[in-house]
């Protein structure tokens, strides 16, 4: 190695699965080519590549928004240039597990909004479903095209210290992050143009075309060119960069609620040539704001009367309204039971063990062991509302207990998972940082397709387990290697 100083400080810690080094402190086979390449580069050249990546992100406006005290602060999304690498065998396992999970979750959503067999058979407690703030009674007996509720999913995976993959969350409402996956790959092509084909890295660039194909197939009108739009809350939304990127790549109109109108149970877009009928809405507006006549009457983000057009079958909405009941963290605990119930199969991907704080016995155990657990609100995202017991003070724990007792249904607890680590380029040296993975699955009439890759999020702070961008995390390109 010409550049040994870059690697000297890389210390593999005990009880943490390292993606690059095995238990014998040897570089895993699938990392060898990229490490050989990096070793041949001087620190000066690597620093120049890092600076280039930052300037490319800045010039292209690849940002996210952090909300603090009611103010939106736009930031460049931190990017680490060392890829996270997944072997073909590992990917096949992940892909198979996600497909199984999504089949069961789609069946659960159809069931819970129609016959509710899973509740009658007491597989999932009725009170857990009915107390979920995202259980949408207005969706009862709505005819959803092809019975597909989850068209787009971002399933969060983590790896424990023994290398086992666990599902941490099912994001089934308006999952975000795919634009960062796509942009990370484009930046990597600029930084390492030769190494990608050499390592036989599978492409992720097909995502927009697959999504567009699926959206077109949902049109209620049998016409050659259905009109598809992407509905955004607007420029102040934290994921607005993603909305603009996906609309551009798919070649569809980016609209806001004020651009659409409902007339005679049909949805139209206002254009300079008059009203144009809309067939499919890929919405990035949350349920409660989508239609002020049905949900929040003060919403200015949605379209008045949209639910009437949806019930009539005159417009398709992606993802379906009411999906939040399936990714509620309290209901997450029952997904393995759903897989067994609907598919008569054993779950491929494991859940993280989960304690329901509405259960008195489980709550008693959690209260006695909070310094070993992670406590989460069942309907928060972005890393907000969590208590990391191992780093909390006694005062923080006692205050959190009082918060739990106000509404025990809204909290779950899980053991602290030692997230796997991967090499990151930090201040001229490779250092391990904790990571997770969000693969993106697209569900259409012809089945489930998962782009080979995903968004690998990184806890850039040393020792941190929180990978969310809103909590100081970043991301890196995810390479899935093709079989030789």
UniProtKB/TrEMBL annotation:
InterPro entries: ATP-dep_Glu-Cys_Ligase-2, CP_ATPgrasp_2, UCP005522. It comes from the Bacteria. Gene3D superfamilies: 3.30.1490.270, 3.40.50.11290. Residues 83-459 form the Circularly permuted ATP-grasp type domain. SUPFAM superfamilies: Glutathione synthetase ATP-binding domain-like (SSF56059). This is Circularly permuted ATP-grasp type 2 domain-containing protein. It comes from Solitalea longa.
């Amino acid at each position: 190695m010409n550049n040994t100083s870059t690697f000297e400080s890389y210390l593999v810690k005990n009880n943490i699965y390292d993606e690059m080094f095995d238990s014998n402190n040897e570089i895993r086979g699938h990392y060898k080519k990229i490490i050989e390449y990096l070793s041949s580069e001087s620190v000066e050249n690597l620093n120049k590549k890092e600076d280039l990546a930052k300037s490319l992100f800045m010039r292209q406006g690849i940002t996210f928004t952090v909300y603090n005290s009611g103010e939106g602060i736009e930031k460049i999304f931190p990017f680490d240039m060392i890829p996270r690498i997944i072997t073909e065998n590992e990917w096949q396992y992940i892909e198979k597990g996600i497909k199984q999970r999504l089949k069961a979750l789609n069946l659960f959503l159809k069931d819970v909004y129609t016959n509710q067999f899973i509740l009658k058979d007491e597989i999932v407690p009725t009170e857990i479903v009915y107390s979920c703030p995202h259980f949408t009674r207005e969706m009862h007996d709505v005819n959803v095209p092809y019975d597909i509720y989850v068209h787009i999913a971002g399933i969060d995976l983590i790896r424990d210290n023994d290398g086992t993959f666990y599902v941490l969350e099912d994001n089934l409402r308006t999952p975000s992050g795919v634009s960062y996956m796509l942009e990370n790959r484009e930046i990597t092509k600029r930084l390492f143009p030769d190494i990608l084909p050499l390592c036989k890295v599978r492409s992720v660039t097909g995502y927009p075309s697959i999504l567009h194909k699926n959206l077109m197939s949902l049109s209620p009108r049998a016409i050659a060119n259905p009109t598809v739009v992407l509905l955004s809350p607007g420029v102040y939304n934290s994921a607005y960069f993603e909305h603009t990127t996906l609309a551009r790549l798919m070649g569809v109109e980016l609209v806001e609620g004020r651009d659409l109108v409902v007339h005679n149970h049909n949805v139209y877009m206002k254009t300079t040539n008059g009203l144009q009928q809309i067939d499919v809405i890929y919405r990035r507006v949350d349920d409660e704001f989508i239609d002020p006549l049905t949900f929040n009457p003060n919403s200015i983000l949605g379209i008045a009367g949209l639910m009437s057009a949806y019930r009539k079958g005159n417009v398709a909405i992606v993802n379906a309204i009411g999906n939040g009941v399936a990714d509620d963290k309290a209901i997450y605990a029952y997904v393995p039971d759903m897989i067994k119930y609907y598919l008569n199969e054993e779950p491929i991907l494991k859940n993280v063990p989960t304690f329901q704080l509405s259960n008195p016995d489980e709550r008693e155990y959690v209260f006695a062991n909070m310094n070993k657990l992670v406590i989460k609100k069942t309907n928060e995202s972005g890393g907000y509302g969590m208590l990391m017991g191992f780093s909390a003070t006694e005062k923080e724990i006692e205050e959190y207990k009082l918060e739990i007792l106000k509404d025990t249904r809204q909290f779950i607890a899980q053991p602290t998972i030692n997230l796997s680590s991967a090499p990151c380029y930090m201040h001229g040296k490779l250092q391990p940082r904790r990571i997770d993975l969000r693969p993106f699955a697209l569900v259409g009439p012809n089945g489930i397709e998962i782009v080979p890759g995903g968004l690998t999020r990184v806890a850039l702070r040393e020792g941190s387990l929180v990978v969310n961008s809103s909590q100081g995390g970043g991301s890196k390109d995810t390479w899935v290697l093709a079989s030789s």
